Structures are given as structure tokens and as C-alpha cells.
Amino acid sequence: MIKKIHFGPTKSAGEVFFHKKENAKSEDDGYLMSFVFDWDKNTSEFVMWDAKTMDDKPVFSAPT
């Protein structure tokens, strides 16, 4: 399955990193992480998504 996570029309992300969960049950059982920059607001945030579901809604985000 191929899926994309959409950041929004004014946002872009750096390189995305994968980190496996402790006691992972499969190779995609982990998190995808990146810094996302909003060009309109001139702000950035650190964001984590569930790598298995690739849901657009982050499991964690924090302003930087």
C-alpha cells in the first residue's frame, strides 16, 4: 500500500525519519518523524505519525 501524508498548502517537511517501537510486531510498527515548516506563519513544529497506519493526524506534535 502506498499512502501520503499531506502537510497542508503552506507547509513543507524536511527528511522523514523512522523509529521502530519497542516490542514491534512488524517492520512498519513505529513512528515517522520530521520537522514541518509553515511558510505563511514562519513557524516550525516537530511532528510524529504512526508509520503503520500513515494517518494524516499526528500522534505527537510540538512547536519548535
Structure description:
The protein is mainly beta and 64 residues long. The chain has one domain. It contains no helices and five strands. Strands 1, 2, 3, 4 and 5 form a five-stranded antiparallel β-sheet that branches. Strand 3 and strand 4 (43-50) form a beta hairpin. It is elongated, with a radius of gyration of 12 Å. The model has no long low-confidence stretch (mean pLDDT 93).
Short description:
Helices cover 0% and strands 44% of the residues.
Topology overview:
Layout: E1 11-13, E2 17-20, E3 30-38, E4 43-50, E5 60-63
Antiparallel strand pairs: 1-3, 2-3, 3-4, 4-5
Q: Main attributes?
A:
single chain; 64 residues; 5 strands
Q: Cα distance, first to last residue?
A: 32 Å
- Spans with pLDDT under 50 lasting ≥5 residues? none
- Could you tell me the strand content as a percent range? 35-45%
What is the H/E string? Answer: EEEEE
3D shape = elongated
In total, the number of strands is 5
The assembly state of the depicted protein chains is single chain
Largest sheet: 5 strands, antiparallel
Radius of gyration: 12 Å
Number of domains: 1
Indicate the structural class: mainly beta
- Average pLDDT works out at 93
Percent range of helical residues: under 10%
Q: How many DSSP helices?
A: 0
